[in-house]
Design brief:
This protein is an alpha/beta fold. It contains 16 helices and 23 strands.
C-alpha cells in the first residue's frame, strides 16, 4: 500500500543520535572527496550518489525499498496515473503461436471481425513463429499500448487477413470467474484487489445464491494483491463484526488494528481459500484473516510472503524514495512478510521487537505456522507434468485440434462430451504429426486427455469461462478443497505432490 508524504523532512522525523550521524556523514564526505580527487577517471556526482551511495544503503534494508532519480520518479507517477488498454481478446500463447480463444463483445477485436480460432501470425510485421513464450508475451504487452497491424490466419482460408486495431481502455473485473463446482457450492476466482473488488465479490455471490449457498471456494492463486482497503472489505464479507483483520507495526509507525465494521452482516456458509506461491500482499491478508478466525480452510501451496507497508516520499530535485515503513501481521500475530536473507530490517531481534512470537494459534486453538506467507491447512500441489503431457502442451496440440474440429463440425454445445470417436480422431491427428505414444501411456493419460480436449473445445465454442468450468473438475487443489471443506478447519495436513 503506497502512501505519499509531501516533504522529505517528514522522513527525518526520527533521526539517529546527532553525534553518531554527524560523524558518519563526515566519514562519507571524506571518502567521496578522496574518490573525486584521486580516482583515475572523473567522478559523475549523480552516478556516485543516485546510482551508488543511496541504492547501496537501501540494499542493506530490503529489496523493496528503492530510490528513484528524477527520470525514474517521473515514470513512476505516470505509471500510477495510466489506464489499462487492450483489444478485448483472450488468446492462447504457445511457442511461436498465438491463437484467439474468445473475443469480448464491443471491443476493438470484435469490431474488426477477429474471431475464435484465428491464429495471429504477425504483429506490426514481426513474425511470431520464431519467438519463445516470454518474447511473445512481451510483444503482446507492448502492442496493447498503441495502434497495431495484426496478420491473422483463419482456418479454411489460405489468404492471410490483416487488421488494424486501436487499443481502448479495458475495465477488467477483479472477479474473473464465478460458477458452480457442484450443486450449491460456488467458485470465485479473484485476480487482484482493486477499488471495486469487494462489491464485485458480493455481487457474484448473490448471483450464485447468496446466503443459500452451501459452500464457497475462493480462489486467490496467482493473485498479487492490490489495495489494502479492498482486502479488508473482502474479509469483512465473511467475518463477524469487530473481529481483527490485521495489525500494522513498524519501528516509527504507531501500531494499529483493522477490524470488521460493527455493522457487518457476514455470509456464514462453509469456505475454502486457495493459495499458491504467487498469492501475495492483499490476497495473503484475506487468507490469513479467514484462517486465523477458523472461518475457512486454506488449501494449496505456501503463499509468497509479501506483507509490508511501502511509503513513497517525494524528495528534492524531482527525486523520490519508496521505503518499507511497517509490516502487516495476521490476527494471530504472524508476520505476512517472509524473512529476507541478508536484510538488516529482517534480523531476528528486529522481528522480535515488532511482536513476532514463536507459536501462533487460531481462535479455536489450532496451531498455524508463522515465518512469512500463509501456510495452507492442506498442502496440495499441481500434478507433475509427464513427458507426454509436456509434448502435447508444448506443441499446442489440443488448441490446434480443437480449432480444426470446430471448423469441420461447427461449435460444440454445452451438452458435448468427448466420445471415443473424438479421441480416435485426436490420436490420428497426433500420429500425423509424429506424436505416437504407446498403448500404456495413452491409456494412463486418457482421462486427462479427455478433459483437456473438452476444455479447449468449450474455450473456442462457448468461451473461456465455460472452459474453466471443465478444467476445474480435474484441478487437484479444487478437488481437495471440496473434499475437506465440509469437515471444517483441521490440523495442518500435507497431501504431497499428488
Amino acid at each position: 500500500m503506497l502512501s505519499c508524504i509531501p516533504a522529505v523532512f517528514l522522513l527525518l522525523a526520527q533521526p539517529a543520535p546527532a553525534s553518531d550521524l554527524a560523524e558518519q556523514v563526515k566519514t562519507f564526505m571524506r571518502v567521496y572527496s578522496a574518490v573525486e580527487r584521486e580516482a583515475a577517471d572523473p567522478v559523475n556526482p549523480e552516478q556516485a550518489i543516485y546510482g551508488g551511495a543511496i541504492p547501496g544503503m537501501l540494499r542493506r534494508l530490503d529489496p523493496h525499498s528503492v530510490f528513484f532519480d528524477p527520470e525514474q520518479f517521473d515514470q513512476l507517477k505516470k505509471l500510477q496515473e495510466s489506464t489499462q488498454k487492450g483489444f478485448g481478446s483472450v488468446v492462447s500463447v504457445l511457442p511461436g503461436r498465438v491463437i484467439v480463444l474468445q473475443v469480448l463483445p464491443g471491443t476493438p477485436a470484435a469490431k474488426s471481425g477477429i474471431g475464435p480460432g484465428d491464429e495471429i501470425v504477425a504483429i506490426n510485421g514481426i513474425g511470431l513463429a520464431r519467438l519463445d513464450i516470454e518474447q511473445l508475451i512481451g510483444l503482446l504487452s507492448q502492442t496493447r499500448q498503441k495502434e497495431a497491424r495484426i496478420d491473422v490466419r483463419r482456418p479454411g482460408n489460405a489468404r492471410l487477413l490483416t487488421f488494424t486495431l486501436t487499443p481502448e481502455e479495458m475495465q477488467s473485473p477483479s472477479v474473473e470467474r464465478a460458477f458452480f463446482l457442484r450443486p450449491g457450492i460456488g467458485y470465485l476466482r479473484v485476480s487482484s484487489f482493486d477499488a471495486e473488488t469487494g462489491k464485485q465479490i458480493r455481487d457474484a455471490i448473490e448471483k450464485l445464491g447468496g446466503r443459500k449457498l452451501s459452500g464457497l471456494v475462493l480462489d486467490l492463486r496467482n493473485n498479487p494483491g492490490g489495495l489494502l482497503a479492498a482486502a479488508l472489505e473482502t474479509a469483512s464479507l465473511f467475518l463477524k463484526p469487530d473481529q481483527v483483520l490485521l495489525t500494522v507495526r513498524g519501528r516509527a509507525v504507531q501500531s494499529t488494528e483493522e477490524k470488521v465494521p460493527a455493522t457487518a452482516s457476514p455470509y456464514e456458509f462453509p469456505m475454502a481459500v486457495l493459495v499458491n506461491g504467487r498469492t501475495a500482499s492483499a490476497a495473503e491478508i484475506v487468507a490469513g484473516a479467514l484462517q486465523d478466525h477458523d472461518r475457512a480452510i486454506v488449501v494449496g501451496e505456501p503463499s509468497y510472503g509479501k506483507g509490508l507497508v511501502e511509503s513513497v516520499f517525494p524528495l528534492s530535485e524531482g527525486t523520490g524514495l519508496a521505503l518499507t515503513t511497517a509490516y502487516y501481521f495476521t490476527p494471530s500475530g504472524r508476520s505476512i512478510q517472509r524473512p529476507l536473507e541478508g536484510s538488516q530490517i529482517q534480523s531476528s531481534h528486529i522481528a522480535m521487537r515488532l511482536g513476532e512470537q514463536k507459536e501462533f494459534r487460531t481462535d479455536s486453538g489450532r496451531i498455524v505456522q508463522g515465518g512469512g506467507g500463509i501456510r495452507p491447512d492442506y498442502e496440495v500441489y499441481p500434478q507433475p507434468m509427464s513427458r507426454f503431457r509436456m509434448v502435447l502442451d508444448g506443441t499446442g496440440a489440443f488448441t490446434s485440434f480443437a480449432t480444426e474440429y470446430t471448423r469441420r463440425n461447427g461449435p460444440v454445445d454445452e451438452n458435448f462430451e468427448v466420445s471415443p470417436q473424438v479421441l480416435d480422431e485426436f490420436q490420428v491427428y497426433l500420429s500425423e504429426r509424429k506424436i505416437r505414444p504407446g498403448v500404456a501411456e495413452w491409456s494412463s493419460e486418457r482421462e486427462w486427455i479427455t478433459n483437456r480436449l473438452k476444455t479447449e473445445l468449450f474455450n473456442l465454442s462457448l468461451g473461456v469461462e465455460r472452459g474453466d468450468e471443465v478444467e476445474a473438475q480435474r484441478d487437484p487443489v479444487i478437488l481437495t478443497a471440496l473434499e475437506k471443506m465440509a469437515s471444517g478447519p483441521g490440523p495442518v495436513h500435507t497431501n504431497g505432490r499428488d
